[in-house]
Design brief:
Blueprint lengths: L4 E7 L3 E8 L6 E4 L3 H14 L2 E8 L4 H20 L8 E8 L2 E8 L5 E5 L6 E2 L2 E2 H16 L2 E8 L3 H19 L17
Helix pairs in contact: 1-4, 2-3
Length: 196
């Protein structure tokens, strides 16, 4: 199996983020952002996508928004880079994940065309100290944009906003694991165009 690893070291005046990812991993995870709920979400992503993932993010300006955004950008860039030319992958992935009373679905196409439709159905303005639109929804958008994929994630229903977000990240992770997996029958890129 071809190695699919990447390392991103993003340094700005606002943040410093180091990401090391192995798409062929088995769930070896180390996440340190200083924001417990963000750590929890990224850990859940790595665990259910079966990635080996190390992500260390440090704020230089004390602004959580910058840290959350740059963590998503760096993670997306690393996962995109690790996919390489995308030869031999399944390409499409879909998952429906329950989290107690909440249900989320994710559909992915790993084609190199950016599109994201994200509906997390969050009602509260903050979940575990992280703001709804500026940070949680922005995390999902920034991740999708920097993955360079087509991504649809929606929470179908639920009552607990924490559960909704957790179901959404796990649905994305399982869909990613399927789409980024190897297809034993696939020769070349999985596209009739002959290019992704």
């Amino acid at each position: 199996m071809k190695s699919r690893t990447a390392q991103i070291n993003r340094k700005t005046k606002e943040t410093e983020v180091l990401v090391e990812v192995n798409l062929n991993g088995n769930g070896k995870i180390s996440i340190k952002t200083g924001l417990p709920f963000l750590d929890h979400l990224i850990t859940s992503l790595a665990k259910h996508a079966m990635l080996d993932l190390k992500l260390n993010a440090k704020s230089m300006d004390g602004i959580d928004h910058h840290l959350i955004e740059d963590a998503a950008i760096s993670l997306g860039n690393a996962m995109d880079q690790a996919l390489g030319n995308r030869v031999g992958i399944v390409r499409f992935g879909h998952s429906s994940v329950p989290m107690d009373e909440s249900l989320a679905e994710a559909s992915l196409d790993l084609i190199k065309r950016q599109y994201q439709r994200i509906d997390l159905s969050i009602e509260r303005n903050q979940i575990e100290g992280i703001s709804k639109e500026e940070d949680l929804e922005h995390f999902f958008r920034s991740l999708a944009q920097n993955l360079n994929i087509c991504m649809h994630v929606s929470v179908k229903y639920g009552e607990n906003d924490h559960h909704k977000i957790e179901a959404a990240i796990k649905a994305f992770a399982v869909a990613w694991r399927i789409a980024a997996g190897y297809d034993g029958k696939q020769k070349g890129v999985p596209s009739t165009k002959g290019a992704m």
